[in-house]
Amino acid sequence: MDGTATRFVGRRRELTALKEVLGGHGARLVDLVAEPGMGRSALLAEFLPAAAGHEVLAAAGGTGGAHPRLTAERLRGTLPEVLVVDDVHQASPEVVTALHELLRTPPPDLMLVLSHRPRQSPTHLLAALGTAATTWRTTRLELPPLTAADTETLLPDTLCGRHRTTAHADSGGNPRYLRLLRSWCAGQGCGGGELFEEATALPEQGAAELLLELEALPARALLVARAAAVAGQDTYLAAVLAGLDHADLLSEVDTLVAADVLRPTNIPGRFAFRHPALRAVTYAGAPAGWRLGAHARAAEYLRERGTPAAGYARHVERAGQAGPAGTATLLAAADELADRAPGTAAGFYRAALRELPDAEAPAPLLALARCAVATGDLRGGAEALSRHDDLPSAVPGAGAETRALLAQYAGRYTQARSLLRKALSTVDSPQLRLPLAQTSLWDTGWHFSDDALLTATGSGDPALQALALAVHGITRLANGSAGPAQRSAREAARVADRQAGADLARTPAILTSLGWLETHLEQHSAALRHFTQGLALSRASGRWPAMIPALTGLATVHLREGELRAAAGAANQAVSLSESPGAEDLRAMALTARAQVSLARGEVLAALADSHQAATLVPPDSPWWRRARLTAAAAHLHDGDPATAVTLTLDAAGGDTLPELPAWDHVPAGSQLAHAELLLGNTSEAALWSKRVTESARALGLPALTAQANLTAARVAQGPGEALVHATAALTASNPLLTATAHTLAAQALTNLNEHARAADHHAAARALAARHGTTPLPTATPAQCPPTEQHVLSQREYEIATLVSQGRTNRQIARELAVSHKTVETHLGRIFTKLAVSSRAEIANMVGRATVVARPRRA
């Protein structure tokens, strides 16, 4: 078993509370309650060593546990200083009565810890605990679910990306269900499906505790539990499967509710397992032959009751007796569910195709490919298309939209365009024109969105119209037309917000494309709303690939708002979801987003690793190749390598006119180039780039881009007065990362103007923003007002350490951030003191702030 399974995680607060009660006096009662599997026993095991200096009796109230079973006689005898009773809900009536008496007449100096599941505890014991506050000093400890961060610490590296992303939600933060989930996941090659959906095989580990709980049930109650695992919440169907009349079944349901196996739902007459994991174990633990018969009876019962095909196709599939009628049922259900539940539909298509003759297989194979790709089973989608193409009755080139999507996911945008344009030469439809327009979302050389908008408008489908408007807006903005882009964004949002969730879930790109348009227009609140909505709809329908652009968008918006923790969480989820072979473009997208977040946090090596990996995953015809190269350039600039930054930026942009970049990237790319040329000493080149950046920002008229242009102008300004004007203008930016840099540049200018008090205020504001948001701004070098002499030129590493010293970091903090030893930092600092002829860290900070210290450029 992985060592992470046994770590004590997420219960430090409760353990501290127990220790505090231990240190008290008088009659002290701790009422320790939790849902099954939340870790009561693990908490007590951690507590008992702390009570080693006291006389302790640790006992189990029920038949299980690591301690001997408590007896009523022992409770009525001489008691120790500390009495810990676990699993009180399983105690015998005699023990419960003795505990009740003890609660009414507490000993003068006893710490009593009662651990139990409240749903299964006797009512009179709960009543006694409720009234014990009058005679005991009572502490109630209820173990909450683990946090998402605690859950993450318990996940092994072998867990597949999709289950890592959903582990917290699937387990409900319950350690027991988390262990079961880990056991059921097949690792990196796992398909990422719903693990708790009627698995037919029990995992080798993780299910034992739940099986013991089920085996403790009376035989007829266990039969009803198994029937419920097959039937779901339909008690009448469960009665049929269990061979009971409805009244007898409800009697057994009472037993299952008392055992907390089933719980009433909000719908009268409906009951559900307390967690899907328990249902899955109950289902998998039933005899295989009984399961087949139960599904066959369920299919027959529901068919006779007039249930639509989608309502009983699952039973037809599980019964394994399709036949012509069953195959027709599976196909009808798959067609009905293809849009709202493509994963389920794919399973029905596969089951039907096992029975279909080749002459009838082409259409179901194309539908299977579409559903498989929608859920992220890219290999299965490609195999379905290949099988389709091998059929004599197949239409050549059919399924162009799915083929193009596979090519796009792999980063082959040119191939995707070719497939779609070829298909359009045969049949013209918005379902083909819109994907074609989407392949050019981040490019400036293709103009497919006008045609897509016209055909979508004529289709009468509001969902397609919203998508076409969003795509049209992005391409307009990419070509520098902010006004038309804003109008398209407003109209797309108006149409999309009026659509039902089912229509939006059918085409998640509506919300994602709209969110990206709003992001580039700096409409962050609207973008967050649409990304979040798209993410929720994609998750609910199992469209895993569609979640990656939404998560990347969320990471980008959070980053621009300075919410780096949220940005990192979204980016990490996107990376986890993008591990499938054939999804290289999605992975490059996710890695680029994570690199941008890492760079903002000052984690330069991580940013370099992710951005370079992203660029190697996809060919240059993918826009994410350019995004990754731009991010790598920024990381090299932060790492003190301006020459490489220039090379990578111009490479990504397609030359010094930036022809391959959308208009919104002209400002950040030009700013990087100006900054890099400045660090290289090419002040005239830096000034030219600053001028072009200003013109680009003015053309779009967006506040953050305008602030970034002002920051660039402040860096290349000829004098401190001019630099101060531009830096002050940039302070109005809503982006805290830009604002922190503006404060730093303003402080530099004021220092050079000998206005040290005002400079200190700006330095303090920059440090406060950096601390609040966890940011590390890029180096803020400007042309030195007095050219530095050789003694002020530091190596790349020395300059990096001097910059961190100027930000108030300690040697240990610097060592952790740069991943070097404390001794290495001390050695570099000694050299810095010698080269700068200073004797204090404050003097280093002053020289860095006045830009009289520069890094020696790296050799290209």
TrEMBL record:
Signal peptide: none annotated. GO terms for molecular function: adenylate cyclase activity; ATP binding; DNA binding. GO terms for biological process: regulation of DNA-templated transcription. SUPFAM superfamilies: C-terminal effector domain of the bipartite response regulators, P-loop containing nucleoside triphosphate hydrolases, TPR-like. GO terms for cellular component: cytoplasm. SMART domains: HTH_LUXR (SM00421), TPR (SM00028). PROSITE patterns: HTH_LUXR_1 (PS00622), HTH_LUXR_2 (PS50043). It comes from the Bacteria. Residues 787-852 form the HTH luxR-type domain. Keywords: ATP-binding, DNA-binding, Nucleotide-binding. It holds the Pfam family GerE. This is Response regulator containing a CheY-like receiver domain and an HTH DNA-binding domain. It comes from Goodfellowiella coeruleoviolacea.
